């Protein structure tokens, strides 16, 4: 099967890139162009024609990549045409008329690259992350993973565990040989070293996932203290409805922001108070749940509503900054706050001191992402398999007697399998769909 798709962005543009990959690529290029076939990897200006009508379609820069020396590992073409919708649609219509030629599914070109062993699974995922990157930090993280820093470490652990498994299986296969009754000290030391390195990797406060998905910030507090106004100010648009009527916000309003290169998901939540209104009460519960799940909370109060201590618990208070809005109305002398924190006083109406709130958010972000250079885990899938690997290594290290060799070998096999699943060194068909379906068509 040969596949094709628009690999550049949809809509009108100066240039559109249409990618074709598969066994019929060379035949298709011969049919839709005239003259000498282009040299491999050499940009060539060609006239594109409709082979059925001989109609001139467009002039394009043509690139020919002969498999396996291509992105997908198959014969592949790139057509750099003018970027009008009409040209792209016409070329799609031409291509779909070729036998065994169809439009690509999302991520199918990269999936082919993985299946043809051009890239490993980690690199495939990082390509998707790079395409989706919205901030500088996300771009840098995706490129670091693409460079192989994570896959090299995982493969190194896998290689050492395979060596350990080989030694254990030798003891099982040759029980009559003069081999030590206990698992060799050196073998255990090597596995123990891997265990400690995995523990250090897992002890990363999920920074890689947070960078990839966004740092979650929730604005919480009583009704009518200016939560929606603060969200609108930070997002520089009317993202939430602002009203003097209490209880206007009942659902969570989310906005994705880039603050100093850091990816932020900031949420405006319902005002927290006792309410007999069923819908508002559900909004309050959702606000509390969002606050517990957030990486950082902005607890917004006003001079008339400072006694909010009943809401605080240690889980929320520890990851909160307290902001008192409406300073233009004057501040009460009796500030009653349970959290032992110095509040930031602002006025959204007068645009006063809001930069201090932004600076505090930046400070929290920099502290959170300080260890970025050491991050290897960027997805929950990686963390799950690494935890399972650690569990089986732990089980292996508890085995002492020769009677446990069979069980020890199985522990190592399972740990190797989980490491292999991260980089795609085992049968991972069940997870491929969930990974590549998030790619854009044409990649």
Describe how the helices and strands are arranged:
Elements: E1 2-6, E2 13-21, H1 25-32, E3 44-50, E4 55-65, E5 76-83, H2 85-96, E6 101-103, H3 108-115, H4 121-132, H5 136-146, H6 149-173, H7 185-202, H8 207-213, E7 215-220, H9 227-235, E8 253-259, E9 262-268, H10 278-293, E10 296-301, H11 314-317, E11 320-324, E12 344-345, H12 354-368, H13 380-397, H14 405-423, H15 429-436
Parallel strand pairs: 1-6, 7-9, 7-10, 10-11, 11-12
Antiparallel strand pairs: 1-2, 2-5, 3-4, 4-5, 8-9
Helix pairs in contact: 4-5, 6-7, 6-14, 7-13, 13-14
Q: Looking across the biggest beta sheet, what order are the strands in? A: 3-4-5-2-1-6
Compute the number of structural domains. 3
Fraction of residues in β-strands: 15-25%
H/E element order: EEHEEEHEHHHHHHEHEEHEHEEHHHH
Largest sheet: 6 strands, mixed
Number of strands: 12
Rg, Cα atoms, Å: 29 Å
Provide the CATH superfamily of the largest domain: P-loop containing nucleotide triphosphate hydrolases
Please state the second-level CATH architecture of the largest domain: 3-Layer(aba) Sandwich
Which of globular, elongated, flat, extended, rod-shaped describes the shape? flat
What structural class do helix, strand and pairing data support? alpha/beta
| Percentage of residues assigned to helices | 40-55%
Q: End-to-end distance, in Å?
A: 17 Å
Low-confidence stretches: none
CATH class of the largest domain: Alpha Beta
CATH fold field value of the largest domain: Rossmann fold
Helical stretch tally: 15
Average predicted local confidence, pLDDT: 84
